[in-house]
């Protein structure tokens, strides 16, 4: 393992770092006038980074050849799969965001730069095979995210969201660090493969506490119950494009990281953490579903929906095998499409003055005033509820199939039954849009990019998506195999 | 016809129609919907013509491995054929029923209906268990919208109740399906039908499937969504709900529960009998006191569906054939009755029975057809209702005389509530001036009720046309169930008649 090999493996990260710094310089000299140019360049850079990581996935990269910097970093098919989702979400955010901020007069040149750095940090998270790399990636992402949450400086809610996110994120990082230090103390190493070897004979009590604290810290980041409290407040307060970003890319990164830690470092000690994950999964599904019922703000609703969805994805993790990991990755793909589509639709809900409409009651009768938009939102809601033949069903199907095949029938039965509670509030949105008399609040027009992203994500989650199951399923299986090949 | 994907075509025609309707204005949407359903009906006739009675069990099979985890596998046997025929026959009538009464958002309405048709045919034609599940569940979305948008005053409550009730039942079934596929290693329904699951596991699997089918059926006491949904749905929605959607539960029992879990079915048969007996008596009594016509027919549907379940769980050919015929007959008759309610609802905009009366005077043709369907619902010989009910009850008599006795009261109670309804609507004095002024059936309405009436009579007079295609499939199912068949309590023994003189000699000798 020489340096050139390592540097070659981190080419996407290098690209993003250098591009981010260059864009920062342009921002410093160009000022806010250059923000549109910087956004376009940032999207181009993210697409370029996607092209750089794609070969690892298509080439089924796995094993020692993908390991860089003496086991600190791994650029295998798993990382590649997650990174494509992350970069895609970041690029979609950058396409959507300028219109939103420009209308408020708050578009600043730093926005695209922060998104690029956040994407860089998330890429490092999913590639981390060492506790130190993990932490660097996590903090890099988090610091950018705190600023993004508070990006509307004059808006009280946005500032509050940023502060809440910062305080709770810092607490989570602290817990995570404590878990990492315990793990290091009781295993004597920070590398995942080293930890895996050290705990092969069974977990000591100290290492067990390490796992628990790390899991708690990571649960904050993926907003799994009972560490979910910040999510609705931050999602509601943050500017809508930022919420869209938070709901998509960091979820992929944090879940990818959790998978790496649990399945790679502690993969042979699954019985130690499986029941914790089962609890997190069921609690997230139930609390996410019940909490959403009373919500009147659609962004808060989406926050609870994301908690609910994370619960379903954790069902795949609870299976603790390759099938479960592949199912999670597939679910993540569908989830990202639904989230992006859902938030773009929310951003398209504007009143006459162009302000975003967030009140669910204001959507009344949308199907008559804006049939296309209502149809798109209805497709996304039914898909989130997991009603076949929409593609959201397939994600739930795969994770529960993994759970059933792993012999976890009660988990599958309870989880599925709880999904009916979730269906209730998704139906509520459809009901308001289709059954109620028009409130005629939504009047604003949106640009073609919004429509294009909504159309593409709706097409993806429509029944046509099933035609992709073989191809995407194959990719997800490759990625999951790479994850397990490492250990 | 071999090799031509006629089933896929039958799925595609309404789907394309549905997409077209979304973008059309009212008038064009109506025409497109009618043409699409008529084309599908024609395709259905072609399907029936080409169905080889006594040939292979599964015909018109198609299989495309285009998905991971499941495949696009279609194929029908006689049972599925008849239910598909019922669906494609009722659809144009539903569109006709909604021709004038639906005025707002016509394109969306027609699209939802055509989508329902695609999904119903898919349910009956699917040969892959997950494909079946998708069609089975997907029907919720258009039905939710149909009830919620075009329904009556309490439509929102009804639509939620319909959706959540049926969804909860179905997700448990999905867990069972996942386990079955994991254990048997295939998603192919014909293979699974021949797979012998462990009898202990069967118990759980049966219960999970039961949770879904019992709600869809609907069986007492999980039937409460049905009256709510029926009353609030528009006429076309009621027709399709009663006519075809309720048959999915029965089809599920006949395709999954019975052949896949014979031991568990036998174990739980007394439960099904008990629920069916309760349903027949209770819902019939409830039907008698209804003042809302649609509610009355909805409760009568629950009672009729109980005759279906009692026949299915009789574990003999008679009972199974009877159940199938009751399902087909109920599809026609309940559909026709809802249509008849719709006809007068369109004129007076009320379903209150007391607002009508003496319609036989000003609407003689209407009264004639209503009488025919009323009699068919009661099960008068010569109508479709008689054949199925007689066979079902004859079937259950062989295993449980008590169940047969109590379920037969359903026919008497059925006569009570249906004749009572007919008397109040068609006979008596014309107390309500507005009801007395209603015009008789017009050409559009005649075009809808006449085919239904003819079908009802055909099935009543010559049921062999409908029994022939499914005879072999029922026999196969009967053979599959033979090993678990419960012992009957009727035990008819052939007595020896003693010669008369011997008896008299003995009689005399004793003295």
Automatic annotation (TrEMBL), chain A:
The keyword tRNA-binding does not apply. The chain crosses the membrane at residues 15-31, 38-57, 77-97, 109-128, 165-187, 275-294, 301-320, 326-349, 373-394, 406-427, 448-465. It is an enzyme of class 7 (translocase). One of its GO terms (molecular function) is NADH dehydrogenase (quinone) (non-electrogenic) activity. The keyword Isomerase does not apply. Its EC number is 7.1.1.-. It catalyses: a quinone + NADH + 5 H(+)(in) = a quinol + NAD(+) + 4 H(+)(out). It is a multi-pass membrane protein. One of its GO terms (cellular component) is endomembrane system. It comes from the Bacteria. GO terms for biological process: ATP synthesis coupled electron transport. It is found in: Cell membrane; Endomembrane system; Membrane. Residues 128-422 form the NADH:quinone oxidoreductase/Mrp antiporter transmembrane domain. Keywords: Cell membrane, Membrane, NAD, Quinone, Translocase, Transmembrane, Transmembrane helix, Transport, Ubiquinone. Its main location: membrane. NCBIfam families: NDH_I_N, PRK05777.1-3. PANTHER family: NADH DEHYDROGENASE. NDH-1 shuttles electrons from NADH, via FMN and iron-sulfur (Fe-S) centers, to quinones in the respiratory chain. The immediate electron acceptor for the enzyme in this species is believed to be ubiquinone. Couples the redox reaction to proton translocation (for every two electrons transferred, four hydrogen ions are translocated across the cytoplasmic membrane), and thus conserves the redox energy in a proton gradient. NDH-1 is composed of 14 different subunits. Subunits NuoA, H, J, K, L, M, N constitute the membrane sector of the complex. Belongs to the complex I subunit 2 family. This is NADH-quinone oxidoreductase subunit N. It comes from Novosphingobium barchaimii LL02.
UniProtKB/TrEMBL annotation, chain B:
Keywords: Membrane, NAD, Oxidoreductase, Translocase, Transmembrane, Transmembrane helix, Ubiquinone. It is found in: Endomembrane system; Membrane. The chain crosses the membrane at residues 6-24, 31-51, 71-94, 106-124, 130-150, 162-181, 201-219, 231-254, 266-289, 296-315, 327-345, 366-387, 399-422, 443-461. InterPro entries: NADH4_N, NADH_Q_OxRdtase_chainM/4, NADH_UbQ_OxRdtase, ND/Mrp_TM. Its EC number is 1.6.5.11. It is a multi-pass membrane protein. Residues 492-511 are annotated as: Disordered. Residues 126-411 form the NADH:quinone oxidoreductase/Mrp antiporter transmembrane domain. It holds the Pfam family Proton_antipo_M. GO terms for cellular component: endomembrane system; membrane. Residues 65-120 form the NADH:ubiquinone oxidoreductase chain 4 N-terminal domain. GO terms for biological process: ATP synthesis coupled electron transport; electron transport coupled proton transport. GO terms for molecular function: NADH dehydrogenase (ubiquinone) activity; NADH dehydrogenase activity; ubiquinone binding. Belongs to the complex I subunit 4 family. This is NADH:ubiquinone oxidoreductase subunit M. It comes from Novosphingobium barchaimii LL02.
């Amino acid at each position: 393992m020489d340096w050139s090999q390592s540097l070659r493996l981190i080419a996407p990260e290098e690209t993003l770092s250098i591009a981010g710094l260059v864009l920062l310089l342009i921002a410093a000299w160009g000022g806010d006038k250059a923000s549109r140019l910087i956004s376009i360049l940032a999207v181009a850079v993210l697409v370029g980074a996607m092209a750089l990581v794609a070969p690892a996935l298509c080439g089924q990269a796995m094993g020692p050849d993908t390991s860089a910097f003496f086991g600190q970093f791994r650029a295998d098919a798993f990382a590649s799969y997650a990174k494509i989702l992350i970069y895609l979400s970041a690029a979609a955010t950058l396409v959507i965001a300028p219109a939103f901020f420009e209308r408020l007069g708050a578009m600043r040149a730093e926005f695209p730069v922060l998104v690029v750095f956040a994407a860089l940090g998330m890429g490092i998270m999913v590639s981390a095979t060492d506790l130190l790399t993990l932490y660097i990636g996590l903090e890099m992402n988090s610091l950018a995210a705190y600023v993004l949450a508070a990006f509307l400086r004059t808006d009280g809610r946005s500032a509050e969201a940023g502060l809440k996110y910062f305080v709770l994120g810092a607490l989570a990082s602290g817990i995570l660090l404590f878990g990492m230090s315990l793990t290091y103390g009781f295993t004597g190493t920070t590398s995942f493969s080293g930890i895996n070897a050290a705990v092969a004979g069974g977990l000591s009590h100290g290492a067990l506490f390490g796992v628990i604290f790390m899991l708690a810290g990571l649960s904050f980041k993926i907003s799994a119950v009972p560490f979910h409290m910040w999510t609705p407040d931050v999602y509601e307060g943050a500017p809508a494009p930022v919420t869209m970003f938070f709901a998509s890319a960091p979820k992929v990164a944090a879940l990818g990281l959790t998978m790496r830690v649990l399945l790679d470092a502690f993969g042979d000690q699954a019985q130690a953490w499986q029941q914790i994950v089962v609890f997190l999964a069921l609690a997230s599904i139930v609390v996410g579903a019940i909490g959403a019922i009373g919500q009147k703000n659609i962004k808060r609703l989406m926050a609870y929906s994301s908690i609910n969805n994370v619960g379903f994805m954790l069902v795949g993790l609870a299976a603790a095998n390759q099938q479960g990991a592949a199912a999670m990755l597939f679910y993540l793909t569908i989830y990202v499409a639904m989230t992006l589509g859902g938030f773009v639709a929310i951003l398209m809900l504007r009143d006459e003055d162009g302000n975003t409409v967030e009140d669910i009651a204001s959507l009344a009768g949308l199907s008559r005033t804006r049939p296309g938009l209502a149809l798109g939102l209805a497709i996304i809601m039914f898909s989130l509820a997991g009603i076949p033949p929409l593609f959201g069903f397939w994600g739930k199907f795969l994770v529960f199939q993994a759970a059933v095949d792993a012999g976890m029938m009660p988990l599958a039965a309870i989880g599925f039954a709880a999904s009916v509670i979730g269906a209730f509030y998704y139906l509520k949105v459809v009901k308001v849009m289709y059954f109620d008399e028009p409130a005629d609040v939504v009047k604003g027009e949106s640009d073609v990019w919004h429509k294009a992203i909504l159309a593409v994500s709706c097409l993806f989650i429509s029944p046509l998506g099933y035609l992709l199951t073989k191809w995407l399923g194959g990719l997800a299986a490759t990625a999951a195999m790479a994850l397990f090949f490492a250990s | 016809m071999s090799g031509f994907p006629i089933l896929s075509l039958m799925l595609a025609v309404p789907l394309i129609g549905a997409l077209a309707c979304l973008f059309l204005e009212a008038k064009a949407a109506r025409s497109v919907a009618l043409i699409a359903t008529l084309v599908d009906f024609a395709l259905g006739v072609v399907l029936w013509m080409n169905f080889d009675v006594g040939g292979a069990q599964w015909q018109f099979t198609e299989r495309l491995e285009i998905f991971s985890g499941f495949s696009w596998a279609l194929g029908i046997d006689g049972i599925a054929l008849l239910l598909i025929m019922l669906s494609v026959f009722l659809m144009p009538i539903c569109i006709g029923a909604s021709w004038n009464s639906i005025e707002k958002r016509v394109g969306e309405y027609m699209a939802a209906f055509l989508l329902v048709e695609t999904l119903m045919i898919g349910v009956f034609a699917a040969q892959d268990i997950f494909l079946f599940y998708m069609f089975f569940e997907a029907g919720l979305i258009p039905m939710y919208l149909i009830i919620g948008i075009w329904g009556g005053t309490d439509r929102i409550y009804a639509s939620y109740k319909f959706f959540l009730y049926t969804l909860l039942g179905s997700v448990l079934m999905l867990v069972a399906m996942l386990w079955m596929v994991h254990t048997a290693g295939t998603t192919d329904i014909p293979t699974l039908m021949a797979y012998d699951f462990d009898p202990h596991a069967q118990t759980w699997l049966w219960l999970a499937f039961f949770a879904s089918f019992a709600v869809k059926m609907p069986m007492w006491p999980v039937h409460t969504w049905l009256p709510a949904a029926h009353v609030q749905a528009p006429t076309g929605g009621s027709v399709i709900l009663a006519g075809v959607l309720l048959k999915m539960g029965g089809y599920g029992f006949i395709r999954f529960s019975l052949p896949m879990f014979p031991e568990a079915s036998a174990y739980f048969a007394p439960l099904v009998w008990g629920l069916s007996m309760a349903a027949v008596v209770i819902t019939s009594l409830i039907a008698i006191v209804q003042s809302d016509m649609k509610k009355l027919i909805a409760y009568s549907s629950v009672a009729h569906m109980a005759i279906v379940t009692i026949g299915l769980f009789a574990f003999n050919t008679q009972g199974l054939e009877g159940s199938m015929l009751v399902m087909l007959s109920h599809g026609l008759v309940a559909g026709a009755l809802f249509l008849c309610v719709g006809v007068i609802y369109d004129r007076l905009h009320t379903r209150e029975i007391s607002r009508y009366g003496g319609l036989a005077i000003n609407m003689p043709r209407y009264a004639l057809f209503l009488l025919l369907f009323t009699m068919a619902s009661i099960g008068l010989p010569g109508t479709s209702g008689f054949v199925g009910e007689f066979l079902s009850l004859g079937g259950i008599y062989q295993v449980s005389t008590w169940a047969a006795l109590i379920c037969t009261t359903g026919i008497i109670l059925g006569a009570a509530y249906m004749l009572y309804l007919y008397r109040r609507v068609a006979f008596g004095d014309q107390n309500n001036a507005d009801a007395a002024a209603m015009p008789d059936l017009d050409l559009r309405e005649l075009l809808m009720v006449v085919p239904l009436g003819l079908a009802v009579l055909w099935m009543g007079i010559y049921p062999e046309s409908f029994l022939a295609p499914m005879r072999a499939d029922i026999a196969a199912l009967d053979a599959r169930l033979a090993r678990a068949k419960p012992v009957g309590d009727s035990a008819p023994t052939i007595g020896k008649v003693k010669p008369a003189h011997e008896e008299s000699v003995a009689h005399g000798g004793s003295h």
